[in-house]
Write a structure and sequence with these properties.
By secondary structure, this protein is an alpha+beta fold. The chain has helices at about 10-15, 25-35, 35-40, 55, 70-75, 100-105, 135-140, 180, 235-240, 285, and strands at about 85-90, 95-100, 110-115, 120-130, 150-155, 175, 185-190, 195, 205-210, 220-225, 260-265, 275.
């Protein structure tokens, strides 16, 4: 492992040809053929048009800064993000407090353009920069008994004004099964459009799981715990019949209060139309195997 920061792929190198580009392919292309990334990514089937920076950074869910979509952009500037430490503990060989800048020194940063689908039935397309969660977990060394990964957001009501209200049980917590966490589509995002990730989007580091509803993608992560039990999640605690542990994007399983069969694309202005929601948010080929044999109505 032990790659240095190599954020030498420009936006144009990988945009907008790919929804998901294998890092090793890109890096091999860069090293071997100079301008090869274009050739590699243009072979991908689908073109995704990312939302513009302004939309991605002004229409947010981040309840630590308020419950309205415009609140995070208004209030998140109060958050101090340096220094930042991510504690990794539980069933790992090397538990400890990992300084964010040391983590960054050891990760290969790449760009991934992912569909992002909120449980409220809207969606965007976001060009993230970040690294695979697997690479971070490998730093800490996951023990064989570990089956789940629990995540926790910062608790700092002095700076996170929304935490003064009991809209959720703070701190915000989320979880993944270990195989979901290790999947190459699962990333820790540290940037958008090649810039450091804005505070309203979860600075300095947030999870992104593109085949799940947005609330799984926990922001401003300060703690990651490997465990052998399914961890609690904030939205499941607040409404267990509405939000399950898995929360895979699934057009055939409706939220009890609204349909999940279609979505409204944000940022399209007057011409925005609803579109049909895809199974696993369009990543079915890549992730359906994780859930083989599971009843996805029961494990929603
Ligand atoms: N800590 C924390 N993480 C969070 C949330 C939150 O309220 N607090 N909201 C979630 C929800 S519901 C969504 S849809 C996405 C929104 O991410 P975005 O604002 O970057 O689009 O963040 C998720 N991560
Ligand atoms: Mo969401």
């Amino acid at each position: 492992m032990a790659h240095r920061w190599t954020n030498d792929l420009t936006h144009d190198d990988v945009t907008p040809h790919a929804t998901y580009v294998n890092r090793r392919q890109i890096m091999a292309g860069v090293a071997g053929l100079g301008l090869a990334p274009l050739a590699v990514t243009s072979a991908k089937a689908e073109t995704l048009e990312p939302n513009d920076y302004e939309t991605i950074t002004s229409y947010n869910n981040f309840y630590e800064f308020g419950t309205r979509k415009e609140d995070p952009a208004k209030h998140a500037h109060r958050l101090t993000t340096t220094p930042w430490t991510v504690t990794i503990d539980g069933l790992v060989d090397r538990p400890g407090n990992y300084a964010f800048k040391d983590i960054m020194d050891q990760m290969t940063i790449e760009e991934r353009i992912y569909r992002f689908r909120c449980v409220e039935a809207w969606s965007m397309v976001v060009p993230w920069n970040g690294f695979e969660l697997k690479d971070l977990l490998d730093l800490a060394g996951v023990k064989t008994e570990a089956k789940y990964v629990a995540f926790e957001t910062l608790y700092r009501p002095k700076e996170m004004v929304g935490q003064r209200y009991a809209v959720l049980d703070w701190p915000y917590v989320e979880g993944l099964r270990l195989d979901e966490a290790m999947h190459p589509l699962t990333i820790m995002a540290t940037g958008i459009y090649g810039k450091d990730i804005p505070k309203q989007n979860g600075a300095p580091v947030r999870l992104v799981v593109p085949w799940k509803y947005g609330f799984k993608s926990i922001k401003s992560v300060v703690k990651i715990t490997l465990t052998d039990k399914e961890p609690p999640t904030s939205w499941n605690q607040s409404g267990p019949s509405e939000y399950g542990f898995y929360s895979n994007v699934n057009p055939t399983v409706d939220h009890p209060r609204w349909s999940q069969a279609s979505e409204r694309t944000i940022g399209g202005g007057l011409f925005a139309k609803r579109k049909e929601t895809l199974m696993f948010n369009g990543y079915e080929q890549e992730v359906a195997g994780l859930y083989e044999g599971m009843d996805l109505r029961k494990f929603y």
